[in-house]
Each structure stands twice: as structure tokens, then as C-alpha cells.
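Archive entry: two folds, one per protein. Generate the first.
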Amino acid sequence: MMRAAIFDKPGIENLRVIDDVEKPKLTNPDDVLIKVKVAGVNPIDNRVISGSIQTIRPIPHIPGAEITGIVDETGNKINNELKKGDRVVIYNKVFDGKCDMCLSGLDMICRNGGLIGVITNGGFAEYIAVPQRNVFKIPDDMDWDLAASLPVTGLTPFHALNEAQLKVNEFLLVFGASGNTGMIATQLGKKMGARVIAVSKEEEWIRDFGADYVIADYDKIVEQVREITSGKMADVVINSLGVNTWDSSFESVGINGRLVTFGVLTGADVKLNVQALYSKQIKLIGSTGGTRRELKDLIDNHDNLQIKVWKRFDLDNIQQAIEALFLNERSGRIFLDIS
């Protein structure tokens, strides 16, 4: 048996920690049982718990999409690359490896897939069992917080920047730069050689994360982007927030620029000026998650990537951890220390 955070109907008030949840079994010969060490707390988890995502299974359900831990047991068909005691992170996409998307390397949009923690039980528990193909070893010098941030917080902006084909010396404008994905987008943009403009009220520490410019006045974003770029505007804009920042993000895209979006924290329904879209030859790019190859690239090139930690909670305080996602004073990531 094990301890786990679990709910049987939507609502954070129904999320509770139980001491006698059945420990996962290795049902397939290529499964890996992982003792969870640290789990990231992500808006995805809130959507699961609140019921805004409809395809939750199984019920009762254990949420948790960002998971890292230590290999505890392996199936009898696991190759020598994984063994008990290895430090690992879990690629949180469920995929069949057979559809046209998977065969083209886009396993994160498998036609028959989904997310661990959404269509399977997740990592807010002492143990989780997943297929070997979802398990990636991490080096000894990678701290648990960074590792737990890779599957969503890191991989999402990395894939988005790859989709946008960000180039050296281009201007990258990051909305929500001090948020989960924003802090990684800022660092990755700098590592890729871009000139990074961060929209954030956390001017001091976001500069330490690689921002060349910081815009803290949300009423003057377009004006300041124009000034910083000498009228050129941004080559690539990342909007992970949704409707509230849509107009300023769209207006900030320069000629032949790219606007990438992957979040709807403030709403999903936006208005689009089609004339501006085609006259400036703007590319609108929707991006979701990332590939296993990109996760491996992040692990191999994790040097100098940082995570700002705001608060840590233990499993018993899971409700407070979820609620803390939406506190105005939050500045940095929230983690659960599981074991």
C-alpha cells in the first residue's frame, strides 16, 4: 500500500490524502515502478482536479503531471539502461507509438494518447508505474526541482521555440516571463542567442534568468517593444496566458514574425485582425508539450538552467499547494516533496 492524493469527484474540496491506496503493479514486462521524489504543481493539475478537463480516468483519480523519482523495480524486459536506484524523470505523454503522429516523431500529439495524470493516475503519490519508454535517466548533478520541471514547465516552451524556429539575434518577447513556462522560455531564448524581452513585474530576478529587457508596465507593452526594437517589433512572441494579453502580443509581432501560443490561463476566445495577419505575414503557431527527443535534449543541455522556487509543500498539504497557484504574491514554482 502507499499514500496518495486522490479524488472521486471534481472539486479541490474532494481531494484528500489516503494512506492505504493500492501500490501500482508492473502489469507489463517493460513497466518501471518509480518511487516519487518531487512533483511539480502545475495549472494542468488544477484543471484535472476542478473538472475542467472532462476525460479523467480512472476515477477515483490521482493527479500529478510533473514527476521525478528513483527507480524502485523494473519489469523482466527492461534493458540494462535502467536499474533500481537510478534517478529519473517521467515523460508525461501517453502514446501508442503506432499512429502517423507517433511514427513521425510527434508522440505528444498521438491520435490515441493523452497525459499521465489525466488519462492515467499521476504522480501525487509515493509510487507510480509507467512504461520504460516514458522514463529518462537524469544526471547526478541535476537537482530534483529542475528535473520535476522538465516534463511540462521546461518541455513546453522548448518545443514552442523550436516550432517558431527562433534564430540568433532575433527579438523574443515572452509574456508571463516569471511564470512556470515563462522563466524557462526566457533562459532558453537567451541560450539560443536571441535578444530576450521579458514581460514581468519581477524585474530583478528575471534579468538574472537571461532577460535583456524587462517590461513591467502592462499598459505600455507595445510602445516599449517598439522602442526596444527601434520599430522592428518582435520576431517571435510567446503568449502562454491567453486572452488578457492577446491584443498586446499580436500587436508586438513584427513583419514576417511568429506568434506562438500554448496557454489559456486567462481565457481562450480571442479576436483576430485578419488584415494585420496577412499584411504583416505573421505566422500563428499553436504548440503543445514536446517530443521525447526534445526532453532528452533538455536533459543533456541542462547546464545553467534555473528554477525559482516559491514554496514547497508535503503531500498532506496538497490542497494548499493547488490553491497557491493562484495567489497574487506567488513568485516562482510550487513543488510537492513526496518522499
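Generate the second and append.
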Amino acid sequence: METLLVERKDPVAWVWLDRSRQLNALNDTSLAELRQVFEELTRDDAIRAIVLGGRGFAFSAGFDIAWMAGQDTGTARQDLASIEAVYDTIEACSKPVIAAVHGAAMGGGLLLALVADLRLAAEGAHFGAPEVKIGLFPNLRLIPRLERVVGLGAAKRMVLTGDPIDAGEALRIGLVEQVLPKADLYTEAAALAGSLAGLPPLALKSAKAVFSATQRPDFVTWERAQFAACWSQPERQAAMDAFLERRRK
């Protein structure tokens, strides 16, 4: 991998954006590698949770402007579908994904955080959608994803002003679930990932899937099928037995 560092510490995988000199700005190579890695991790039964972080001083400063500036309108439009597929792949990953954010998470970097399931931030982190300031607007479904997480008003303020928000404001509006000293960020991410990885795998996979399945026309049938499948697992019986044993003590 040219732009990523992947560490498998079964049952948790750590995926690091590793273009620190460019503040982990995203280009065609890093996007292709992200898609490849998340497709592989989805298929890897040994991996049950994933942490996404950034090396150096930032999570990700967004799309690499030098890469973007060299594209004409036709090329930029053609690339949108393949870029969107990268984010869709991360969002659809069957394993829970935790974004551990320090420094900047801007534009495409903010979107990386949004397609994760859970977001932790270091105290110095900041988040933004600055596209209007360079004559663009956030696409790749960043706006509906942001609105879903923080609500309409907060999303409009971030998008229309292009101004970043700090970690405290991100916590207040629900963009992140926890703000930590930078020294504790990855320790907490590891603990959370380990806790998730220790849960019965089919139940965890189904619990994640339900959030994107609620609009299915056959949702009730799908939901009942997931319940039945989880009930049939030996892990379900073992977890219930362990719970009852603890209650007896």
C-alpha cells in the first residue's frame, strides 16, 4: 500500500491514512486503496471491528487540491461515481467502523468520519465542509449524511459558511460521541473496538445492518429473519447462559 498502513490485531483491524506530509489528503491512489482494504476486511472473518485513523498531524484534510485542480469538468464528473463507491463500501462494511479523529477532518475527510459507525475525537480535532470557499459544494451525499447525524440546522451552518467547528462543538451537535485528550484517543478506540469485537458476530452484523435496512419495503420480514438467524446461533445461547450465571451469583 502506498498511502495506507493496515494493522491486523485480530479481531480488530487498524486502517491508517498514511500521507502525513499531505495531511492525509485523499487522491486517486488513497481512495482506490481504501476501497480495496475495506472490501478485504469485510470478507475477513477474523476481523470483527475496524478503527480508521490518520498518521501525523491530521485525520484527513480532505481531497488533494493538487489532484483535483488537474481535472477538467468531464473527468471530474466521471470520477464521482468511483469516488462515491469508496465511501459506500466503507459505510456498507459489515463490521463496525470507528473513526478516531485528531487534527483536521475536512471535506472528504469529514465524509470518511461520517460513513464510520462511531466517531471519537481528540481535543484538538476540527471538522468542516469548506467546499463553498473554493467554488464547489459538498457532494458524494455528504450533506444528507451530515444532516442525518447532526440535524438540519447544524448541517446548514457547516455547509453554507464553510467554517470548521472544533471538537467541543462537534460533541454538542452529535457529530462525535466522545472527546478525549489526544494521548487517550487510540487507547479508547482500541477498548471500544475490542468491546464490539467481543460481541456475538451475527447479532452485531445484524444490528449494524438494520440502520440501512429500515426503508426496505420488506423490512418487517427482513427483521424477523435476522432475529431468527441470531436465535439459532450457539453464541446466543452461550451469551444468555453467561448472563443467567452472573445473575445467580
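Annotation attached to the second fold: Residues 73-92 form the longest helix (20 residues). The mean pLDDT is 93.
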